């Protein structure tokens, strides 16, 4: 396997390789694009855009359109249904990577070749090396990572489709590498029953608590869910530790077999200690209490995951939060070279060998209204729904020409048949490491709430809620997670927010002061843009409604999406609900409802 040599080289010379990649970022990008074009100019998709085989880089940017998933979905569907992969790529497509499916509805199928899959396996090794270089003691114990898989799906072509993490955890590279330093036995990670998997992984983490130097998961939402699971099951976990016997409901044979080599004897003293810690009414600093040797909490906490930062800081008790990397199902973007930076200050450094990157300039604040772009080559037009004007949009720039302080939407050309593909993620350039740009991850710019002419994006919503929750913090109230939907069942329609709140000192529901909650509603509305305010003033949109739900309601929402095919390990809580069933779940947990003043503007 070609990747194994590369993996060994990274273990031996990882930091040197990283320096070379970032120092030659421009050259690597140009070489990558040239190689992709030479290999794939004859494919059905690319050959349409080159006259007489003139497939050099300038023709690529002038002729090949910038596309979304919907534009190329017919080609991907043909490959999934059994046609040759040379429709998009000269090399054979070996599998499909599924997107998480919770950001925009149904999962996407992203083609993957053996080469592109192997390249992506480099990222976690680089991340691990950087963290061990910057945080002392990580190489002197085990990592308690909560990893989960999702069942694979066979396409009509016979090619399998799965989450990237599911495929990665099944590789020998993972099993013989990073898995050896994790507390969780591989069979508990590969268990398809998420509840049994979660229980066994938590039990193992508690049994090996003195060896754990790092706790983590792919996304912050998984850690938040794991703590809620611990709240529900700590008594049973203590009973297993005290008696030395695994609960009977753990029925997966591989899990039971794996746990038999870890849960080998009664440990009443350990059980008593864990019980004493968990019986405390306040779980502030619980992670530090249960795992005293932990040096950091590693999980993606940027973008939509930033809403979990206060919660993890509360449970962590001062343990540094590390957001290690940034990417998407389509491509890996970059890694965090300063893992001890504050969560809201995290910048990632582009890895120039993962894809060919272009950057489409967007509004200076990274937000504003989403627009429908008609892009082809170096020119574009933007159609505005609020006016009849057509405005020219700046053409995309390459890695060498991004500007510090500017916001860009990422466009990738990959090693597996995506050409000038709009990922949808927005980045703010913060600097350079050698010649490779560094960026902060901004939430997706897609519209989440829409009534009449108003279109409110994830960025707009996140900024508004961030301002509003400041009112609650002096009162000791934490906003643990949120979502929203546009309620058009009545005329005029209104935007509805769902907030799950808790007191800092306990999981008790805070006393909800109507004036305070109405003030939060008003701050959210004041933070929206001129279009929203005009429609609100004109009576086209009704007063915003805020529904507070009880503790654990959003865990039930996660369970719902997991039951529909989402992966617990890559679950991203939807910032806006499109499913009536999902709205019903949150409504069932509602304990209070509040409105903005009827006449605000």
TrEMBL record:
Record carries keyword Nucleus: no
MF terms in GO: acid-amino acid ligase activity
Database matches in Pfam families: GH3, GH3_C, GH3_M
Keywords for this protein: Ligase
InterPro entries: GH3 (IPR004993), GH3_C (IPR055378), GH3_M (IPR055377)
Domain GH3 middle, first and last residues per copy: 348-444
Every GH3 C-terminal domain range: 460-581
Cellular component terms per the entry's GO annotation: cytoplasm
Family designation: Belongs to the IAA-amido conjugating enzyme family.
Name the UniProt record assigns to this protein: Indole-3-acetic acid-amido synthetase GH3.17-like
Source organism per UniProt: Gossypium mustelinum (Cotton)
């Amino acid at each position: 396997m070609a990747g194994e040599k590369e993996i060994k080289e990274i273990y031996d010379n990882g930091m040197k390789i990283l320096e070379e990649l970032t120092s030659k970022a421009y050259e690597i990008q140009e070489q990558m694009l040239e190689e992709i074009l030479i290999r794939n100019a004859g494919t059905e998709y690319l050959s349409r855009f080159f006259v007489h085989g003139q497939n050099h880089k300038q023709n690529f940017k002038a002729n090949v359109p910038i596309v979304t998933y919907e534009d190329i979905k017919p080609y991907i569907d043909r490959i999934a249904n059994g046609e040759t992969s040379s429709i998009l790529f000269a090399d054979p497509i070996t599998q499909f990577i599924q997107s998480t499916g919770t950001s925009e509805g149904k999962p996407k199928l992203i083609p993957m070749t053996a080469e592109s899959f192997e390249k992506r396996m480099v990222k976690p090794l680089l991340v691990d090396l950087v963290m061990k270089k910057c945080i002392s003691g990580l190489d002197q114990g085990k990592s308690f990572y909560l990893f989960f898989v999702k069942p694979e799906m066979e396409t009509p072509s016979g090619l399998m489709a799965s989450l990237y993490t599911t495929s990665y955890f099944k590789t020998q590279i993972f099993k013989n590498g990073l898995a050896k330093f994790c507390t969780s036995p591989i069979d508990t990670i590969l268990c398809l029953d998420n509840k049994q998997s979660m229980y066994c992984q938590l039990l193992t983490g508690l049994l090996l608590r003195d060896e754990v130097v790092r706790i983590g998961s792919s996304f912050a939402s998984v850690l938040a869910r794991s703590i809620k699971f611990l709240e529900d099951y700590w008594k049973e976990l203590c009973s297993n530790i005290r008696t030395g016997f695994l609960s009977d409901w753990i029925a997966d044979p591989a899990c039971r077999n794996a746990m038999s080599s870890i849960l080998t004897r009664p440990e009443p003293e350990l059980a008593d200690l864990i019980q004493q810690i968990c019986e405390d009414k306040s779980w502030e600093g619980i992670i530090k209490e249960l795992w005293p040797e932990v040096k950091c909490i590693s999980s993606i906490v940027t973008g939509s995951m930033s809403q979990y930062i206060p919660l993890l800081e509360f449970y962590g008790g001062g343990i540094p939060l590390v957001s290690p990397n940034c990417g998407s199902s389509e491509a890996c973007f970059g890694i965090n070279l300063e893992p001890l930076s504050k969560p809201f200050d995290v910048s990632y450094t582009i890895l120039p060998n993962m894809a060919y990157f272009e950057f489409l300039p967007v509004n200076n604040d990274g937000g504003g209204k989403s627009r429908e772009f008609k892009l082809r080559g170096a020119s574009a037009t933007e159609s505005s729904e609020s006016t009849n004007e057509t405005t020219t949009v700046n053409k995309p720039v390459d890695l060498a020409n991004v500007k510090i302080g500017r916001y860009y939407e990422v466009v990738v050309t990959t090693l597996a048949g995506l050409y000038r593909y709009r990922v949808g993620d927005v980045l703010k350039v913060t600097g350079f490491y050698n010649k490779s740009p560094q960026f902060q991850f901004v939430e997706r710019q897609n519209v989440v709430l829409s009534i009449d002419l108003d279109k409110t994006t994830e960025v707009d919503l996140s900024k508004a809620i961030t301002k509003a929750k400041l009112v609650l913090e002096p009162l000791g109230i934490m906003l643990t997670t949120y979502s929203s939907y546009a309620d058009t069942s009545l005329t005029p329609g209104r935007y509805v927010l769902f907030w799950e709140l808790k007191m800092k000192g306990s999981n008790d529901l805070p006393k909800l002061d109507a004036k305070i909650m109405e003030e939060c509603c008003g701050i959210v509305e004041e933070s929206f843009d001129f279009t929203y305010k005009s429609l609100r003033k004109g009576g086209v949109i009704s007063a915003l409604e805020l529904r507070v739900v009880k503790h654990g309601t959003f865990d039930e929402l996660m369970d719902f999406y997991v039951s529909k095919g989402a992966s617990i390990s890559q679950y991203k809580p939807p910032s806006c609900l499109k499913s009536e069933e999902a709205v019903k779940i949150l409504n069932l947990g509602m304990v209070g409802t509040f409105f903005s003043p009827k006449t605000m503007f």
